[in-house]
Write a structure and sequence with these properties.
Blueprint (H helix, E strand, L loop, with lengths): L1 H81 L5 H8 L9 E17 L9 E15 L5 E14 L3 E5 L3 E4 L4 E3 L2 E4 L3 E4 L6 E3 L3 E3 L3 E2 L19 E4 L5 E4 L6 E2 L19 E2 L3 H4 L7 E2 L8 H4 L17 E4 L2 E4 L8 H6 L6 E7 L19 E2 L2 E3 L2 E4 L13 E2 L11 E10 L4 E6 L1 H5 L4 E2 L7 E3 L12 E2 L1 E2 L1 E3 L13 E5 L2 E5 L1 E4 L14 E2 L9 H4 L5 H7 L2 E5 L2 E5 L2 E2 L1 E3 L1 H4 L5 H8 L3 E3 L3 E8 H8 L12 H5 L15 E8 L47 E3 H6 L7 E6 L18 E6 L2 E5 L6 E2 L13 E2 L9 E5 L2 E4 L5 H6 L12 E11 L26 E2 L7 E13 L18 E6 L15 E14 L1
Parallel strand pairs: 4-7, 4-52, 5-8, 6-9, 7-10, 8-11, 9-12, 10-16, 19-41, 26-29, 40-43, 41-44, 43-45, 44-48, 45-49, 48-50, 49-51, 50-52, 52-53
Antiparallel strand pairs: 1-2, 2-3, 3-54, 12-13, 14-15, 17-18, 19-24, 20-24, 21-22, 22-23, 24-25, 27-35, 28-40, 29-37, 30-32, 31-32, 33-34, 33-36, 35-36, 38-40, 39-42, 46-47
């Protein structure tokens, strides 16, 4: 037992020792497991903490990246507010901007142009249906935490659309008016950034076949002048706008966006007291529904880049302000410095800086572009009234093929205290520097001539006048003969002589009858006086600069006219503009004030005639190899004369002309705003909106009562800032339409800060007239879709159409009777940007005509000076009004003295809907649309 016990105890002891070890192992295992669980828990907790921390860091980085993307997008979008296409410097500047509020992050921002200028059709909104040139952009912003190195990126895509303004049939920056015209039909979209006042005359009607929009109100029950509609005449509705299906729907009188005839609510025009009292039409939403979105008011304004900069859109046609120029800054004519120079946006938008050719005239060398610091011996333009033997003038250089042109007769242009300078330049634009780039080609272009070729033939021969002399002139400043009937004399004084040459009457400055040897030397005492020397007016300004002895010394030519010999002289190209010369439409008043021998000085316009046909020959290279090789341009070009390929072009050429002779304060504006001549400022006279009645009669302007003998006005320049640019021989334009569609189309645009006059057919040789009341469609204008169907535009302070029957002689003979200035059918085809007058209201006491203070409206936007009754003006184009005229600022009157309107056969030129067929220099409206956003891994 004892042993057993012992054994048992031993076994117990032995057994207890084994169990204790196993338990220890178990405990250790449990501890290990617990430690593992703890470690796993701790690890998981740490991981979750790290993950949570990472999530927080990523969230913060995402917020930083999104902020960077937003600020970059905003800054980049701001560029499109003021310019249509950012350059590399703009992109670099935006990318380098700091992102506020995130000091612990660094940013990498990239802006990429993912697709360049693709033509698209826009959908929806105000722009729906319009074509645009679209660029696709992508902005990416990556934010990196400087401590944790966590990176997050975001990306945004958007479109920048450039919408050509010539896609509109009509576009007005301010109020658009169309009040009771004769039958008026127009295609193309119509838009006003102001209000649209419209009313039709009973029995005629207004038919608008495309979408019509206004940024403000549509008014059809009162005129803008506050004049009530005439019962039974222009209150009979008859205004039709096509719905979305092309069905004409009538806009009934009193059912527009506002009610003015019996308003019942707050005055929507309270901030503009010159407008009538009108209240919102509570039923407008319902009443406009029938137009299916094609008649809309209070839409988003469509803005040009300069609008966002609060820059007056008249600056589009004015000369630029670049370092090296003189300019009117704060009322003083001073050199332009970097702080007063145009911004790159303004500079790029100016037509004066568009690619092509720029022509500038001024009263001194320093007032020419880029010549402010030019010394007396530094080449910069050409003086036209410098010494010429014992006379004054300018003799163009001969061309290398023997061609010569007539010397400019400055004796009829010069004035004491002023000089006559011209500069002609090639123009291009450096988009990266934001400045125009030019080369002086004045002497080269002037070698083509400055004179309208004399009408030599069986009835006229001129001794020493060659068979080609003056035949190449592009820039014409003078002529030997003025076509048209005789200009009346004043008493015993004769300034001109009229001869009929082969059935056509012409007026000459025939100074002397020549017999024997009286013409050698130029004039001797044996010569018989024929016409008086027409000293420039007023004579007190002419002094010794312009006198007959100087003309006799250098500018007389022996001419055999119908068998008799005379000493004739070339004279400036002058024209009378009745609208600019008279403040009202009273023929009897004009006859009483001026009689048969005088015209008001205010309407005498000094013209630069641009021979478009000769310019076309130059661009085509007809005279390559013939230009002189001794001009400054040729010398700098290694002795090679000017060639057509030396003229920069961008889908064609812009020809810009600025004539500031007589512009005393050098601001490009005619300082005579008292167009209702009573010495009291009316708001509709203040075209520059400076709150002053600008009337500088001492230096650059003249009153309506000042008169000039008609013959003198027709053959001598004057002191005033009354200048115009006239386009002649323009039925076929420079350029080409590439029918292959390969993008080689070249168009032609003319722009001027002066008034532009278009004489005869322009960019069209004819048209297949519409039948009955139907307008001629644009595809019926000739030529059509051939090489000579040129994209064309004319941009000026004002645009006046002169028919194929116009002669300057006739208007000097009949300045006050439009019935004696009959027009003939004329066809023109171009987009047009121009200014108009400011409509007044019935509160203004002075009445310029029976139409009160209407500015003429859309149907009189193109100006006329002839009797057009029963004659057609065929027009295909786009009518764009952006400003009020500053030079041709005569108020609209009709229909006794100035003109009677034509049959308005007008249509929108649908070729402008093709972005590849736009005129060069076409302004664009901008639009931005965002299309996508995404997060990207950093």
């Amino acid at each position: 037992m004892k042993n057993g016990n012992v054994n048992l105890e031993v076994r117990r002891v032995t057994a207890g020792s084994d169990e204790s070890g196993a338990a220890l192992v178990l405990v250790l295992l449990v501890l290990l497991l617990l430690m593992g669980f703890v470690a796993m828990a701790i690890s998981r907790t740490n991981t979750e903490a790290i993950v949570t921390n990472n999530d927080v860091e990523e969230a913060r980085a995402y917020a930083a990246s999104e902020a960077a993307l937003d600020t970059t997008t905003r800054d980049f979008a701001d560029i499109f507010e003021v310019k249509l296409a950012p350059n590399s410097a703009d992109i670099i500047n935006v990318q380098s901007q700091a992102v506020p509020g995130f000091p612990d992050y660094t940013f990498s921002k990239t802006i990429g142009n993912t697709q360049k200028s693709q033509a698209v059709v826009l959908t929806g909104g105000s722009f729906g249906g319009l074509y645009a040139l679209r660029d696709s952009w992508e902005i990416e912003a990556v934010a990196t935490n400087t401590y944790s190195d966590v990176k997050v990126g975001t990306r945004r895509r958007f479109f920048s659309d450039r919408i050509p303004i010539f896609q509109f049939g009509v576009f007005y920056e301010d109020d658009l008016e169309l009040n009771r015209p004769p039958l008026f039909t127009l295609g193309g979209r119509v838009h006003s950034n102001g209000n649209f006042f419209v009313s039709a005359a009973d029995g005629y009607g207004i038919y608008l076949s495309s979408k019509v929009t206004a940024a403000k109100e549509i008014v059809n029950d009162i005129w803008k002048t506050k004049k009530s509609l005439t019962g039974g005449f222009d209150d009979q509705s008859q205004v039709f706008v096509n719905d979305d299906s092309g069905v004409p729907r009538e806009l009934l009188t009193g059912q527009s966006s506002v009610i003015c005839r019996n308003p019942s609510g707050p005055n929507v025009f309270a901030s503009r007291p010159e407008l009538p009292y009108c209240s919102k039409n509570a039923n407008w939403v319902t009443q406009k529904a029938k137009f299916q979105g094609n008649l809309e008011s209070n839409v988003k304004p469509l803005n040009l880049p300069l609008t966002k900069l609060n820059v007056d859109l008249i600056e589009l046609v004015k000369r630029g302000k670049n370092v090296g120029d003189l300019a009117n800054v704060g009322g003083a004519t001073v050199p332009v410095v970097p702080g007063t120079a145009d911004s790159d946006t303004v500079s790029k938008e100016r037509f004066a800086n568009k690619t092509g050719i720029r022509i500038s005239l001024a009263d001194s060398k320093q007032k020419l572009p880029g010549c402010a610091a030019a010394g007396p011996t530094n080449p910069c333009g050409v003086r036209l009234d410098g010494p010429l033997g014992t006379s004054i003038g300018y003799r163009p250089k001969p061309m290398t093929d023997g061609y010569v042109s007539t010397a400019l007769n400055a004796t009829r242009m010069a004035f004491t205290g002023r000089e006559i300078w011209i500069k002609i330049e090639t123009m291009d634009f450096d988009v990266n520097l934001g400045v125009p780039v030019s080369k002086d080609i004045t002497e080269d272009i002037l070698s083509l001539g400055v004179t309208e070729r004399a009408p030599v033939g069986s009835s006229l021969s001129i001794a020493g006048y060659t068979s080609t002399q003056d035949s190449r002139s592009v820039v014409k400043l003078q002529r030997f003969a003025m076509r048209g009937p005789a200009v009346p004399d004043t008493g015993s004084t004769s300034y001109t002589t009229n001869f009929t040459l082969s059935g056509t009457p012409y007026t000459f400055a025939a100074r002397y009858n020549i017999s024997g040897g009286c013409f050698n030397p130029p004039v001797s005492i044996t010569c018989s006086s024929n016409d008086s020397f027409a000293r420039p007016f007023p004579t007190s300004k002419a002094s010794v600069q312009a006198v007959s002895s100087r003309e006799n010394d250098a500018h007389l030519w022996a001419a055999n006219i119908n068998g008799s010999t005379y000493a004739i002289a070339p004279f400036p190209i002058m024209m009378f503009d009745t609208r600019e010369g008279l403040p009202n439409d009273s023929e009897s008043s004009a006859d009483s004030n001026f009689g048969t021998g005088y015209v008001p000085a205010a309407g005498v316009m000094s013209m630069i005639d641009i021979d478009v046909a000769n310019l076309r020959k130059f661009f085509a290279g007809d005279w390559d190899g013939d230009f002189p090789v001794t001009t400054p341009y040729a010398v700098a070009n290694g002795g090679v004369g000017l060639r057509s390929v030396d003229i920069p072009e961008k889908a064609g050429w812009v020809l810009y002309v600025s004539d500031r002779r007589g512009d005393y304060d050098f601001d490009g504006e005619y300082d005579m705003e008292d167009v209702f001549p009573n010495g009291v400022l009316e708001y509709s006279e203040d075209v520059n909106r400076n709150g002053l009645l600008d009337t500088d009669y001492l230096n650059e302007a003249t009153s309506y009562t000042n008169s000039i003998p008609r013959g003198q006005a027709a053959t001598a320049d004057h002191w005033y800032f009354r200048r115009g640019v006239r386009l002649i021989n323009g039925s076929v334009l420079p350029g080409v339409f590439d029918t292959s569609g390969l993008g080689n189309t070249r168009g032609f645009t003319v722009s001027s800060e002066n008034g532009v006059y278009v004489l005869g057919n322009y960019n069209a040789t004819g048209a297949g007239f519409g039948t009955g009341t139907a307008v001629t469609p644009p595809e019926s204008y000739y030529p059509q879709n051939t090489a000579n169907h040129i994209p064309a535009a004319i941009i000026g302070d004002a645009v006046t159409i002169l028919s194929n029957n116009w002669t300057d002689g006739r208007v000097f003979q009949h300045p006050f009777s439009n019935a004696d200035r009959p027009a003939t059918n004329t066809v023109v085809r171009f987009a047009m940007i121009s200014g108009d007058a400011i409509t007044g209201n019935e509160d203004i006491p002075y009445s310029p005509s029976g139409f009160g203070h209407l500015n003429g409206g859309l149907h009189n936007f193109k100006r006329f000076l002839e009797y057009w009754t029963d004659r057609r003006l065929n027009y295909a184009g786009s009518l764009i009004n952006l400003t009020n005229s500053r030079n041709n600022n005569g108020f609209w009157t009709c229909c006794t003295t100035v003109y009677r309107p034509p049959i308005r056969d007008w249509t929108f030129d649908t070729s402008f809907l093709d972005p590849t067929r736009l005129p060069p220099g076409t302004p664009f409206i901008y639009s931005i649309s965002f299309t996508g956003f995404q997060r990207v891994n950093g």
